[in-house]
Amino acid sequence: MDIRAARLTADEYAHNFSDMHPPLGDTAALVEADRCYFCYDAPCTEACPTGIDVAGFISMIKSGNNSGAARLILQENIIGGSCARVCPTETLCEQACVRNEQDHRPVSIGLLQRHAVDAAINAGQQFFSRAPDTGKRVAIVGAGPAGLSCAHGLARQGHQVTIIEAREKSGGLNEYGLAAYKMLDDFASREIEYIAAIGGIEIRYGQHLGDDFDTGSLLNEFDAIFLGMGLDGVNSLNLANEEVDGVMSAVDYISQIRQSGDLSELPVGRQVVVIGGGMTAIDIATQVKLLGADEVTLVYRRGPEAMVASEEEREFTQIKGVKILYNAKPVNIITVDGHVREVEFERKGETFSLPADMLFKAIGQNFDAKLDGAVELEKGRIRVDAQRKTSVAGIWAGGDCVCDGEDLTVAAAQDGKLAAKSINEYLLKSGRGE
Amino acid sequence: MADLTSNFIGIHSPNPFWLASAPPTDKAYNVVRAFEAGWGGVVWKTLGEDGPPLVNVNGPRYGAWHSGDRRLVGFNNIELITDRPLDLNVREITQVKKDWPDRAMIVSLMVPCNEDAWKEILHKIEDTGADGIELNFGCPHGMSERGMGAAVGQVPEYVEMVTRWCKEYSAMPVIVKLTPNISDIRQSARAAHNGGANAVSMINTINSIISVDLDTFSINPSTGGKGTHGGYCGPAVKPIALNMVAEVARDEQTRGLPISGIGGITTWRDAVDFIALGAGNVQVCTAAMTYGFKVIDDMVTGLSDFMDSKGFASVDEIVGKAVDKVTDWKYLDLNTIVKAQIDQEQCIECGRCHVVCEDTSHQAISATKDGSRHFEVIDEECVGCNLCVSVCPVEGCISLRELSVGEIDKRTGETVSGEYANWTTHANNPMRTNQ
């Protein structure tokens, strides 16, 4: 077993965890914006889950109207700054770009969006103001992308929002998930400050659903509830020895990396195996490699075409030195002295094993909130309608915790936005509150 | 490789590319660099009369209009004629011509509008061995306030008068540089012709203001908070210059008068445009001021390759090739019917053709087919206006197809006759003539 911290020099850590896509400078942004054709009924907008007027904001960047561009983005998606960094644009807006047809290189929409939004956030430029207080109070469970988007939408309408967060910080996956090279510095927390600056948003930390409060108690105190607590459980491999030392949840370790003040304190194995096929698998495999692991192998039970991680993500991790094995299913964890030593796989009827000092599980998360049947579930997650209403009047839900979602930050933002709209209509109609 | 040597009004140069009278030709240092780079000739920056040199502003002289990727598309300046002593210029011109005998050396002149002033300077220039002179009747800024430059060029009688003096007091070929800041360029060209000019060069720069500084509300460029109009040049002015060249080339009274083409020439293609419309050679300034003298390489090799590919043995064979293709609107064939057509293989589905046709033209391009995104021309509505072709980002994707004789124009229901018919005889023209 070879698990150690401080495998690299300070410079190597800094280099490895620098921005995955460095921001565009002003001139580069103008040149890139100039590549946009300002399409009619633009396919990129169609492809954006939040429906941002992409061609519109890019044309504004082109004319030097950066605040107009930021306003256009943020009015559809208040966490447009995060989405610009973490969206798999290659499967969303940039995939739809007509430039792909012409020269196989889409307009860098994500980078342009980041350019516009960062400038506005850095300047503290607020585009929306809070309507006069309505006296209505809404509780939001979870301070992740869905909850923040919903909170901002409701605060704009003059409602008083209380976000209840189980962790010590807001941001959800933006703060605790995602690879560190996607969300550099303290952007996640600065974005939240920016969102909360509209006023009327209070955040309570360290409060756990089911332990410290439940939907019943919330309904007594508030006029409406939005559930946006994400997914708390980690899917299990259903193998023996899964609890031994060295077998870890990718989500937990990603969170440790994100919260680490000093990457050299994070221990990594010399040989590491990651099991999974989504973005979490890519994020953990890449980061462990960048932390100094010698050999990182990402093993996925099906072929590349079935993988949730996009081709670009897969290429990225391979460039960083991660090896991907397809069509291999884990069948056995071999231990030595209570610690993982090898992982055995089965592929096309044959078995082989990979040495592993660490084994990361990244095969998805599940809904594990203590709702005690307060709302109806479907396929293990909360069932909602098109307006993000749950089965119970007065309770909405969105983000990863709802059924049939896309498990994307941008989809969560859209859920929060739609729910806020629906909640607002409900509150204006209902006689509750004052 | 085609023969690029040029003989313009008896002035020989290894290629038809001269540097125009402007900052790049203000002194020997620059001109020698230009010749080393391969330029065929120069028109030395305008000399004024002897005496204390004039002064330029100490603030900015240039202003630029950029595209989004900061390509310079339009440029203007408020620099005056040379601010160096006349003797110094004369000495340098003499030396450079001596050192570079195969290159064309033209000297641009601008002195007050009286006979003695012209007489005096002409003698000085004759002694330099220069190949010819160019009369600067075009500078639109500064000098025009003092009764020179465009102030002369805008009065055809003055143009003719000064040209005549120059022909009378000098044996050198005289090129008259025309200002575009006039309503009918042909009047100036005719005046130069009548005065005995060997050639005209055109166009000089256009009165212009580049932009306003939106913080200070002074114009760009500004000196001490104020600015003045400058002379506009660069790629943006080329179409204006081409039209003026063609106007002069096809005018009955000036037909055959040699033209030195100027105005936004950046590549060999631009040069061929000018030459085809009647220019015997071309002059360049902004391209050199934007990229340096090395741009001559593309101009020379591009022109040469073009000539080889088309079978032209000399530049003269191209001169005026397009002049007869320019006519008045009233003579355009109204029986030629074209329709836009979109090559679906090349279409990237940006929809620009649809939205501009829908919003601003003839509603002749549909945006969907069987419920999906698809752009197609509706022949029943298409007037063949070329707007869609102009805005399409994919070159060659949309083209205009001319209907053949016997085909039915679905817009009008009429059969294409193939017979030429223009407005002068059209039934709707109250002023029509009978055939």
Architecture overview:
The complex is a heterodimer of chains A (434) and B (435). Chain A is α/β, with parallel strands linked by helices. Chain A folds into three domains: 23-123, Fumarate Reductase Iron-sulfur Protein, Chain B, domain 2 (Orthogonal Bundle), CATH 1.10.1060; 137-232 and 367-430, FAD/NAD(P)-binding domain (3-Layer(bba) Sandwich), CATH 3.50.50.60; 234-364, FAD/NAD(P)-binding domain (3-Layer(bba) Sandwich). In chain A, 36% of the residues lie in helices and 18% in strands. Chain A has helices at residues 10-16, 26-34, 43-47, 54-62, 66-76, 80-86, 93-96, 99-103, 109-122, 145-156, 173-176, 187-196, 215-221, 250-259, 279-290, 311-319, 409-429, and strands at 3-4, 137-141, 160-165, 201-205, 224-227, 233-234, 247-249, 268-269, 271-276, 295-299, 323-325, 329-336, 339-347, 350-355, 358-362, 365-366, 377-378, 381-382, 395-397. Chain A is globular and about 65 Å long. The model of chain A has no long low-confidence stretch (mean pLDDT 94). Chain B has an eight-stranded parallel β-barrel, surrounded by eight helices. In chain B, strands 5-6-14-11 form a four-stranded antiparallel sheet, with no helix packed on it. A two-stranded antiparallel ribbon of chain B has the order 1-2. Chain B is of the alpha/beta class. In chain B, strand 5 and strand 6 form a beta hairpin. Chain B starts with 5 loop residues before the first strand and ends in a 33-residue tail after the last strand. The longest helix of chain B is centred in the last third of the chain and has 15 residues, at 296-310. Chain B has helices spanning 28-37, 86-99, 115-126, 150-153, 156-169, 185-194, 238-249, 268-276, 286-291, 296-310, 352-360, 387-391; strands at residues 6-8, 11-13, 17-19, 41-47, 62-66, 72-77, 104-109, 132-136, 174-177, 199-202, 206-208, 211-212, 219-220, 230-233, 259-262, 279-284, 338-342, 365-369, 372-377, 398-402. Chain A binds chain B through residues 27, 30-31, 33-34, 37-43, 62, 98-99, 101-102, and chain B through 67-70, 348-352, 354-355, 367, 373, 393-394.
